[in-house]
Specification:
Blueprint: H1 9-42, E1 59-62, E2 98-107, E3 115-125, E4 132-139, E5 157-161, E6 179-181, E7 190-198, H2 205-215, E8 223-232
Antiparallel strand pairs: 1-2, 2-7, 3-6, 3-8, 4-5, 4-7
Keywords: Membrane, Transmembrane, Transmembrane helix
Organism: Dietzia psychralcaliphila
Protein name: Ribosomally synthesized peptide with SipW-like signal peptide
């Protein structure tokens, strides 16, 4: 077709339609690129994560202030209760007599949390379960003043119990604030002195003798068990 020749109406319509299609396609490309640029400018991600685990807290006891063991109780192992070493013969007591045993509480070496502990329960079995009374003192070092000769120098009692507050009841009277323990078995440890009296500390020897006779003589040996419970305090 010569450029100088006039185009027919049908040819003109074809050309117009072709230009529109090109314009639409071109517009589509521009719009597509514009949408991609907009998404890239307004959408992005930032990631964060953390690692979590628990700390550890485990009480241990010591009969000599140096060697610490778990003493988790007879429910785990019949030998898992600390056998206190009382000053004087605890199995040959007379009415109103008091015997003394030191005991130190700390934490296991891998413990990572600080905490506190209290006297959770006391239980007893044997003829004199309702006659024996006890006092537990907090002392500055293992066995300090924890003997008959120096007992008058023991500090204020931390826990008490006895015939009027039955020694075999789980409710313990006379509790002060919980005692603190430090992670990793570091000093200061909590040093205790456990004093046990055959009878009531505030009663006369005659009254205690009557209580012993009433309970029965001869008698089956009486076992008293103290359970200390610890709780971590680190938040």
């Amino acid at each position: 077709m010569n450029a100088n020749d006039p185009i027919t109406p049908d040819a003109q319509q074809k050309q117009d339609r072709a230009r529109k299609r090109k314009a639409i396609l071109a517009g589509g490309v521009v719009l597509g690129l514009g949408a991609a640029v907009t998404l890239a400018a307004w959408s992005d991600d930032v990631f964060a994560d953390g690692i979590f685990n628990t700390g550890s807290f485990e009480l241990q006891g010591s009969l000599d202030g140096t060697t610490f063991l778990d003493y988790d109780g007879p429910a785990y192992d019949p030998t898992e209760s600390a056998s206190l070493e009382f000053q004087l013969e605890a199995e040959e007591m007379a009415p109103s007599q008091t015997v003394y045993a030191p005991f130190t509480i700390g934490t296991e070496e891998d413990t990572s949390l600080d905490g506190t502990f209290t006297l959770q329960s006391v239980s007893s079995s044997g003829t004199y379960a309702g006659v024996l009374s006890y006092q537990i003192f907090e002392v500055n070092s293992h066995s300090e003043n924890c003997n008959p000769d120096d007992a008058e120098n023991l500090p204020t009692v931390a826990w008490v119990g006895g015939p009027t507050a039955k020694v075999n009841e789980t409710t313990v009277t006379g509790l002060n604030d919980p005692l603190e323990v430090v992670a990793d078995n570091q000093a200061p440890y909590q040093h205790l002195c456990i004093a046990v009296t055959l009878g009531n500390v505030s009663a006369t020897a005659t009254e205690n003798q009557a209580a012993v006779l009433a309970a029965g003589v001869p008698a089956a040996a009486t076992t008293v068990s103290w359970v200390f419970n610890g709780q971590s305090t680190d938040a």
